[in-house]
TrEMBL record:
<keyword id="KW-1133">Transmembrane helix</keyword>
<feature type="transmembrane region" description="Helical">
    <location>
        <begin position="17"/>
        <end position="36"/>
    </location>
</feature>
<dbReference type="InterPro" id="IPR046862">
    <property type="entry name" value="Rhomboid_2"/>
</dbReference>
<keyword id="KW-0812">Transmembrane</keyword>
<feature type="transmembrane region" description="Helical">
    <location>
        <begin position="106"/>
        <end position="127"/>
    </location>
</feature>
<dbReference type="Pfam" id="PF20401">
    <property type="entry name" value="Rhomboid_2"/>
</dbReference>
<feature type="transmembrane region" description="Helical">
    <location>
        <begin position="166"/>
        <end position="184"/>
    </location>
</feature>
<dbReference type="GO" id="GO:0016020">
    <property type="term" value="C:membrane"/>
</dbReference>
<dbReference type="InterPro" id="IPR035952">
    <property type="entry name" value="Rhomboid-like_sf"/>
</dbReference>
<keyword id="KW-0472">Membrane</keyword>
<protein>
    <submittedName>
        <fullName>Membrane protein</fullName>
    </submittedName>
</protein>
<feature type="transmembrane region" description="Helical">
    <location>
        <begin position="139"/>
        <end position="159"/>
    </location>
</feature>
Amino acid sequence: MEFNRALAAVRRGVHAVVGWVCAAPGTYIWLFILWANSRALAEMPDHVRDWFLLSNSTNLVGLFHNPVWVLVVSAFWTEKPSFLLWLVAFHVFHVPAERLLGTRRWLAVVVCSHVGATLVSQYLVWVGIRTHTVAHSRAFTIDIGVSYAIAGVAAVLAYRVPARLRWVYLAAVLAYFSVPLVTSHTFTDFGHFSAALIGLACYPLTRGAEAEPAERRSRSAAGSAAG
């Protein structure tokens, strides 16, 4: 009797986990790849890691020679193997966004934010080099990671926050990304702020997003497992 109860509890737990993951498959696939890549980076010697990240960076050189490759690959690596930080950030922003918007709409926001903010920040680098206000070495710096996508998704979630808290949440997001823009004003800061604005511009993707495929997959997976 006790064994059967314990087994039933385990099954319910497994069903709940399966349903949760199936409601945000894109996020968890992305997280798994980041985890594997973080492990790989941690095992690399410093000089090899720097060379690898530089070769796959969305700096001016990478965007000029192989733009599609670096824009895609750079979204699956981080400069420092700090997976725990991204694990938390993905659950705070990406998981609820994918559940609320559906995988396709969420992915559209991710791509627009990552690509758009990268192009904005690197355009500013290019202008700086052309006007001799930025060192030419900036064209070769490491520029890689997932933070632009997080900024865009964090912003687009403002449209799904309850109305009474929406403006507070939006003010917090904009303050978080605009304060560094004023205090340190690096090209990465411009990129993060641009990504947040791009996320806000994705409002049309939030309309009619209830009961998107991700949400239905969650219910379907839970129902199938229970059966």
